[in-house]
Amino acid sequence: xxxLSAGRGAVKRxxxxxxxxFSPGFLCRCAFLEFKNPGLEDPACGAAYSNIRMEIRxxxxxxxxxxxxxxxxxxxxxxxxDPAKYTFRSDPGEMYRAWLGRRATDQRSVFLVAERSPxxxxxxxxxxxxxxxxxxPIYRVDEFGFIHDLWVEEAYxxxxxxxxxxxxxxxxxxxIGVEQxxxxxxxxxxxxxxxxxxxxxxxxxxxxxxxxxx
Length: 214
Known about the structure:
The protein is α+β, with helices and mostly antiparallel strands and 214 residues long. Helix content is 28%, strand content 29%. Strand 5 (109-117) and strand 6 form a beta hairpin. The two termini are 28 Å apart.
């Protein structure tokens, strides 16, 4: 699932990434972004900042409780777009909780969070989660990376944050050694498709659905 507004290039500066910022085995680097946007209000405290610094880093199990509310927003948005496909049995945030915890310690998963500063307290502005999936054995490709979810909180959109997380995920999957990365987008989510296209993705398959009324 993907929900994000495409960036409009308002990022003032992307700092040189530093090594060793990810979970064990994660050789990829994290990124620091500074937003020069006077009057941008920080939703965590209601204060206006002219210089907001974002660190994109590997998630830890301790980040999961802060990611769960964003998962709920993702799921609610998708359900509003297509309830026939995206109506959930129960609280999707709770259903994600244990799975996200495992992703945070799995060296073949990519689980990134964007953390805002200045603080305190630290505030997560977005996340991306992806895994390595096995392909069915009739195809040449044995496995592929799959981006399950990408979310940026509304106050921090249009600054290139989502695109930076996607590019870091691509870098990590390249290090893992997978040959392809795939994802799905909701039919209504043209903005997300534009974002992913800007990162090098192309349309491969198109899912179709018919409801059989009983």
